[in-house]
Design brief:
Elements (H helix, E strand, L loop, with lengths): L1 H6 L10 E4 L4 E5 L5 H19 L1 E9 L5 H10 L3 E6 L20 E5 L6 E5 L6 H10 L8 E2 L9 H6 L1 E2 L5 H16 L22 E8 L2 H4 L2 H14 L15 H10 L8 H9 L4
Parallel strand pairs: 2-3
Antiparallel strand pairs: 1-2, 3-9, 4-5, 4-9, 5-6, 7-8
């Protein structure tokens, strides 16, 4: 997708990224329509820098693109012993509560905090399943779970292609719709970027740059209770973990623990790539 957009000249391969200092805590990054990973990486690093100086960093990124996993940026902040919020908007894929047509993106909400051990990192889309899961299912001819998407006629579907042409459903009905709307405001309206369904789909719309916005908020968790913070975090986690376990559960995990265990388990294993995707990579001359 990135290669296609570069060829179509709707991603700037040599962006002149500028950082505007608004205050010691607040910065505004113009990503110059470059690849989202680049602008976002500069944005989170600036937010980390600001928080280390003043206790809090607020950084908006404009004229960016799809930036991948929010947790990648949250992990950078947490490794610097900071609390962090990451927001980004996305192309229309989610129907607002009560509608049957997409308008909001799957607009993820990401929160991270140091714990003294495995970082607490919650990274979840406001749709029931991620857009990427549906695209993967469509590419490999797999079905998607029932109850996560509607076809273009507003009916439930397990067909991935129909779901991509229709709309995904928000988590928790009205609440999920409200959260998606919140992220659209924070990362779209506030940053001066596309919002309200105007963000271009990176796979299908080559009429121009995506103009996606990101918002990073980094906080020094010691600003109120000092070095006690990690001690209190450990107490908080332990109280949850000591609760009586529901049937079928041997442990209560906090966000980030499962991913960390899988990462360590798979670190030295081979990476298996489906034949269809491998062929696409070969055609792009990237392997």
């Amino acid at each position: 997708m990135y290669c296609n957009r570069l060829k179509a000249k709707v991603i700037n391969p040599k962006p002149k990224i500028k950082i505007k200092k608004i205050s010691p805590s607040v910065s505004y990054v113009n990503a110059d329509n470059g690849i989202g990973f680049v602008g976002a990486d500069i944005g989170i690093k600036q937010a980390i820098k600001n928080a280390k100086k003043t206790g809090i960093g607020l950084v908006a990124v404009k004229k960016s693109g799809h930036y991948g996993l929010s947790s990648f940026y949250a992990e950078q902040a947490v490794k610097n012993k900071l609390m962090v919020f990451c927001f980004t908007n996305a192309p229309a894929a989610l129907a607002p509560y009560g509608a049957k047509k997409s308008l909001f993106g799957t607009n993820p909400i990401c929160f991270g905090v140091p714990t003294g051990k495995v970082p607490f990192i919650f990274d979840g889309s406001t749709s029931i399943i991620n857009r990427g899961h549906i695209r993967r299912a469509e590419k490999l001819g797999l079905k998607i779970p029932y109850g996560v998407a509607l076809n273009k006629h507003g009916k439930m579907t397990t067909n991935a292609k129909e779901a991509l042409m229709g709309t995904q459903l928000p988590i928790a009905g009205f609440k999920g719709s409200g959260l998606a709307w919140m992220v659209d405001i924070l990362s779209g309206v506030l940053t001066g970027c596309s919002h309200g369904g105007k963000t271009k789909d990176p796979f299908d719309d080559f009429t121009g740059p995506q103009n996606i916005g990101h918002l990073f908020i980094t906080i020094n968790p010691k600003i109120f209770i000092g070095s006690r913070f990690i001690k209190e975090m450990k107490k908080n986690i332990n109280r949850v973990k000591k609760l009586p376990k529901a049937k079928g559960f041997s442990n209560i995990l906090y966000p980030g623990e499962r991913k960390n265990k899988i990462y360590k388990k798979n670190l030295n294993k081979d990476i298996r790539i489906p034949a269809k995707i491998l062929k696409e990579m070969e055609n792009l001359n990237v392997i």
